[in-house]
Amino acid sequence: MAGWGFDAGKNQARGNSDDMYVVIQVVLTEKLIGTGSGVSSLTNLQKVLNDQARKGYRLHTITTTSTDSKGFMGGDKIQATMVFEKVV
Fold this sequence. Notes:
Blueprint: E1 9-12, E2 21-29, H1 39-54, E3 57-67, E4 77-86
Antiparallel strand pairs: 1-2, 2-4, 3-4
């Protein structure tokens, strides 16, 4: 439920299980009431990082883009795009 302080979700590029690099995008949402990103957004980001570490990947690059939502009861959103590199 984006706009209510919950995560809008995550996207992962399609690929093979033996790929050297994995690209994942996590959308973090601004809380509707109050300031700062919701705790669920940070929990989702942390989960993605730990999931990839367990699979043998390390964070190679992270970029963020801030967007201003104009939708009904939509808050600001930050898209975090992360590139993970397989540790060999």
